[in-house]
Structures are given as C-alpha cells and as structure tokens.
C-alpha cells in the first residue's frame, strides 16, 4: 500500500490498479489497499456506529447491521473502546478508597494530567515541559493571549485569517476590548483573493512583511475548519518573529491530523482541543503549548498597561483613555510547584513555562478518555498515520473527481467541487465539498444512507476519512452513496423548482 516519499497518491493508486489489472475505480483497489494497510487493526480499537442507531437513517436504503460511514472525525472522534474500562477504574478507586485516590494508582488524581503528558510529545512535536493538558480550548486561548498580547501604541494588532473559527474570532475581539482597543483598527484579517477560497502563503507573508511592525500577535489556525487548508506554520512563524511578533496557533483541526513540530519550528504558543482527531469525547480535556524559550519570561496572565505617548488623535482612534496603571496575574494552586504545593503557606512558587498556567486540579474522568486515545496514537505514530492519511484522502479526492466532476456533455447532471487545496502539503485528511445543487438536499440524502458528515455555511459539506479508524473501503462505499444521494437530491430539487 505504501507510496514512496516522492510518489503522489494518484500515481500510487494507478500503480496498484495496474498490478491488479483493473480500473482504479474498481472495488478491488480499495480491498487491496485495506489488506496491505499496516494500520488497519487500529480500527478495532474504536466503537463504530451502526446504521440502525443513527437518528436520520432510512432503514429502507441501508443494511441496518452494517457500520455507518463515519467521516466526521474532524468534529468529534469516535470512542476508543478502552475509555469505559479506564473510567471504571477511577470510579472503582473512588468508591473503594475515596480521597486516597489522589495519590494512588496509575493515574493519581493530583498528577493525572501529568501521567499522560509523555503521550502528547510526538503528536505536537514538543518537549514534555512545553505542554499542559488543561481546561477547554478557548479558555486556554484566552490565558495565552493575556500573556502574549502586550499591545503598545505602535504595536497593537492581532493578525488572523478570514472566517477563523467563531471561538477564535470572539476571543480576539474580547482581548482587544479588554485592552481598550478599537476592534476594526486592531483586528487585522487576511482574506483570500477575489474568486479564491483559500489563502496563498505568499499573501500572508506579504502582509506580515508590510504591516508586521504594528502587529503584536499573529494567531492562525493550523488547519482551517471550513476549507481544510493546512497553513504553512513554520513559514508564518519565521516571518512573524522576524518582524518582532509573537506567533501562535489554534491547532484544533491540526492536532492528531497532521505532523507537527512546534518546538523545532519555534512557535511561541499554541492550543488545541482533544475531542476531534484525538478522540477524547465531547468537551474533552484541551491542551496548550508554550515554547521553552519563554519559560522564564512569559508568566500566566501578566498584564501591565502602557504609558501612552502618542498623539491625542491616535489615542482617540485606537485606545480608550485610562489613567489606571494595573498589574494582573491570574494563577491557581496547580501552577504552584508540586514539591511545596501542599505546604499551604500561600507563597507562590510558580512552575516555569506552560505548567505554571494551570489553575485547577485535573478532571480525572476527562484524563481517562484522552489517555485511552493517546495510547493508540503512541502505537500507531503520527508519521505512519499521516502517510496513510495522504493516500486515503488522495483516493477520496480521485474518486470524487472521477464520478462527480462537472460533465460538459451533460450540463444538467449535478456535480461536486472540492475547495480544499489539492496539494497534499496544504491539507490534512478533510475535504470540503460544494455542490451545483442546494446542499440541504444532498446532506439529507447522505444522512438517510448512513453517511455521518456535516454541513457548514455558506455551502460546504465536510468529509474527513480518519486514518486511525476509516478504511479505503469506507471511501469506496461513500462514493457510491454520494452518487445515489446526488441523484435523489437532484430529483427533490427539480420537484421544488
């Protein structure tokens, strides 16, 4: 199954089809790819929903006992089978020994988050002391921005991509408001070129070069939630830091999806959730990263107002007047060094780096579900998963283009566009599809046929074959169901018209 490092997915697929003496679209290609897949056994570690259990499925169209086509790991990953056992371990410990559970067992409650930190290293490409598992994603983003966003009269902007995930957009807005800044002048949003869906790296770098002296923080997604575009994290980081900016990333759609090297790339800070590709369950324990170079210089939520020396005009346009000089530090007990934490003398010994950002004790039940998933990642490795993902998504892309492209000979036939970049270096496993007919009909028909994906305004349906538990045969079946859904959707659309 494996392609050589220089072989594109389409070339690999064509080579295999030639070996099998069949067309690339033949079912035998998918079955062969699954047979040769060295990661296929990891699928057995997850609960895969059955057709009969899905609320929108039409049982007259499917075999109720078959597995659903679950292509929504980009929104909520499937449940690892070991989650229940790990939860029961902690519930049993609580029932039998009560407070002794704080210090006993493979996940002592006091250090439960720390016991699984080592499993995150390779996933984000960082040292253990650069990672903390805590809170939810947006809470972590706020904590990090409070520390890294230090506006001055000359450097007061936050740069982010257009149509960033709403929680990121809201977080940036509220941080600007917290500092008394004018949102329109301080929130610098980069939009794609006219007629394009995704951002060009050269356009991002050009804005950084031209406006970098006024930018305090660059905050981008690792992978854009809607388009599925993988941004060039090292290039953006290097360009931003060269202009004196702090550079951070929301990795919600990148972590567990693509290979990351946060330490080597020199990223200043990052945060992520764990319920998508990391399969920790809805509202699972999130993560944060602060590069070790900031361990002794960036403190949790340290903010000091600046003395403005700009003209009255600039003050009125950008800054709200304030004559208060304030210093704020938001810390909690679990940011205190463990060795002296229980002396209870209220003399803070802050842990250097990101661990000092922790405020509360870890929620052990959330640690359990994340632990179950991270153990699977440790066995599979991100390198191998990414290699399979490139081929798996490449196979999906080829099949969609083969069967669902615009037909010049039949202009009335519904067709599909893929707005996610075609270059494998510029995407993860997700493809975002748009359609020549209303997506509400297409989505309804897919749901009826047991395809679990999602629609996102304005007109996209996101599908994400996840290499940990999706198969090549899943892709093959999806294409057949998509074709059937398009036919039914077109009939419904025509009847409405």
TrEMBL record:
Gene3D superfamilies: Aspartate Aminotransferase, domain 1, Type I PLP-dependent aspartate aminotransferase-like (Major domain). Its EC number is 3.7.1.3. It is found in: Cytoplasm. InterPro entries: Aminotrans_V_dom, Kynureninase, PyrdxlP-dep_Trfase, PyrdxlP-dep_Trfase_major, PyrdxlP-dep_Trfase_small. It comes from the Eukaryota. GO terms for biological process: 'de novo' NAD+ biosynthetic process from L-tryptophan; anthranilate metabolic process; L-kynurenine catabolic process; L-tryptophan catabolic process to kynurenine; quinolinate biosynthetic process. One of its GO terms (molecular function) is pyridoxal phosphate binding. It holds the Pfam family Aminotran_5. It catalyses: L-kynurenine + H2O = anthranilate + L-alanine + H(+); 3-hydroxy-L-kynurenine + H2O = 3-hydroxyanthranilate + L-alanine + H(+). Residues 120-301 form the Aminotransferase class V domain. The keyword Acetylation applies. Catalyzes the cleavage of L-kynurenine (L-Kyn) and L-3-hydroxykynurenine (L-3OHKyn) into anthranilic acid (AA) and 3-hydroxyanthranilic acid (3-OHAA), respectively. Has a preference for the L-3-hydroxy form. Also has cysteine-conjugate-beta-lyase activity. Homodimer. This is Kynureninase. It comes from Panthera pardus. The gene is KYNU.
